[in-house]
Amino acid sequence: MAAIQATLQQIAESQAAALDAAATAIVDAFRADGMLYLFGTGHSHLLAEEGHYRAGGLAPVCPILSSATMLHESAVTSTRFERTSGIGAALLERYPISNRDVIMIFSNSGVNAVPVEVALAARERGMTVIAVVAAAYAARVPAGPSGHKLADLAHIVIDNHGVPGDALVPIGTARRFRTGPGSTITGAFILNAILTEVAWRLDAMGMEPPVYISANMPGAAEHNAGLVARFRSRNPHL
């Protein structure tokens, strides 16, 4: 808890400008009838799902999902896959992406081939690219086959203040191993902080924020069905 709290405090103190820029880009996209797409490989794919169809979440948010980049079929294979060149651009083909849209890519190291290629492909399509990376980690590892790092390709970079290797807590007096990975918690905080700010700004502009209501709350079924009908054509996961 102490390590997570310290990391979140670092984010709050140092990333305000980047968080503000991300919220501005997403508000502009939504006002232009655009979408926010979310992408990550390995455990970072959890953050793409974090923003998808949940209570308090925003409806114009769509995850980019591919089973091969996730962990449930083969974790070992997914690790190889995310480091394989020539795949990233193809992952976007399933989605009706336009230059009105924003993509947020989560990659702790910021160097694996697939997230970098997704960023390159997104830029070619005119999307605004937001990267969430651990800057200290990315600085310690070489670029992948493309020669690029994710942060170099993003219009907006948010540092999750993760440590190299992600695990926050040294174990034992020898400190040979570390545990307590932090990037999922910090990534979820960053994402939801931005989306909360987006909702507040839309409301302040006189626009009703397209927020899902928990299915167990009164009136949720009709309200959520309307949002699904509105965004289903741009989100194949609804």
From TrEMBL:
<dbReference type="GO" id="GO:0097367">
    <property type="term" value="F:carbohydrate derivative binding"/>
</dbReference>
<dbReference type="InterPro" id="IPR050099">
    <property type="entry name" value="SIS_GmhA/DiaA_subfam"/>
</dbReference>
<dbReference type="Pfam" id="PF13580">
    <property type="entry name" value="SIS_2"/>
</dbReference>
<feature type="domain" description="SIS">
    <location>
        <begin position="26"/>
        <end position="204"/>
    </location>
</feature>
<dbReference type="InterPro" id="IPR001347">
    <property type="entry name" value="SIS_dom"/>
</dbReference>
<protein>
    <submittedName>
        <fullName>SIS domain-containing protein</fullName>
    </submittedName>
</protein>
<dbReference type="InterPro" id="IPR046348">
    <property type="entry name" value="SIS_dom_sf"/>
</dbReference>
<dbReference type="GO" id="GO:1901135">
    <property type="term" value="P:carbohydrate derivative metabolic process"/>
</dbReference>
